């Protein structure tokens, strides 16, 4: 019957989602286990503590994302320095980018006067998702630039990657519920990102060329400077 088919579809969506989430959690766990073992040897190194910390924070972000889906309306809006939010999001990817030979360029000190009004945890979630996608879009060596611009009413933060790009016929699917074209993707990232940004009266602008790269721009209303 129809009812039964619907149930089956639901289960497979949950199954796909679960396998993507498990994959995202398992990677940092594997890394944490490895570095914990190294800490116990003569190769022990202070840097390993930072790596372990950043891997644990990755897992924390995945938990936040799931929580956001469960309770999307709990927000805590304050005036925040956008560059700081991006800087803290980037801090999570040190090891990942290093492993993958990706250079990430961002100069937070250039943007010390640009504030937005928002929920810091949620906005960090947005930038973590966009940076993660940019890293995953680069298959060999690559570069990610992050820039902030503004006009009288808005701030624009752009994440520019030279990864695989998005084919023109797929760009409209991006951000639709659970859309992913990665074997171990969840399609959660842009969905949550879109919810958060809309809730902040902002916009997401995508510009992409297959084989050349992708730019995601987050537009947010500028907040009065403190
Ligand atoms: P996931 O990363 O789990 O697949 P997302 O919602 O984060 O889910 O992204 C959805 C899809 O959008 C990705 O599977 C990918 O096809 C596409 N995408 C997002 N960001 C980029 C990017 N920077 N470069 C190329 N494709 C991207
Ligand atoms: Mg993603």
From TrEMBL:
Residues 20-224 form the Histidine kinase domain. The keyword Kinase applies. It comes from the Bacteria. It catalyses: ATP + protein L-histidine = ADP + protein N-phospho-L-histidine. The keyword ATP-binding applies. Keywords: ATP-binding, Kinase, Nucleotide-binding, Phosphoprotein, Transferase, Two-component regulatory system. Its EC number is 2.7.13.3. GO terms for molecular function: ATP binding; phosphorelay sensor kinase activity. This is histidine kinase. It comes from Heyndrickxia ginsengihumi. The chain holds residues 130 to 355 of 355 of the full protein.
């Amino acid at each position: 019957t129809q009812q039964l088919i619907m149930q089956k579809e639901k289960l497979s969506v949950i199954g796909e989602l679960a396998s993507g989430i498990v994959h995202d959690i398992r990677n940092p766990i594997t890394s944490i286990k490895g570095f914990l073992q190294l800490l116990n040897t003569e190769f022990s190194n202070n840097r390993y503590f930072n790596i372990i910390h950043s891997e644990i924070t990755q897992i924390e972000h995945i938990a936040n994302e799931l929580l956001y889906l469960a309770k999307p309306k709990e927000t805590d809006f304050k005036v925040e320095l956008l560059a700081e939010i991006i800087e803290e999001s980037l801090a999570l990817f040190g090891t990942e980018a290093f492993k993958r030979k990706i250079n990430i360029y961002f100069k937070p000190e250039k943007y010390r006067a640009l504030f937005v009004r928002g929920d810091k945890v949620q906005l960090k979630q947005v930038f973590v998702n966009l940076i993660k996608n940019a890293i995953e879009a680069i298959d060999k060596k690559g570069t990610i630039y992050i820039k902030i611009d503004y006009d009288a009413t808005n701030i624009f933060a752009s994440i520019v990657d030279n990864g695989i790009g998005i084919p023109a016929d797929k760009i409209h699917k991006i951000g639709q519920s659970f859309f992913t074209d990665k074997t171990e993707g969840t399609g959660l990232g842009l969905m949550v990102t879109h919810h958060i940004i809309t809730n902040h009266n902002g916009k997401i602008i995508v510009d992409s060329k297959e084989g050349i790269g992708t730019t995601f721009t987050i537009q947010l209303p500028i907040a009065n400077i403190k």
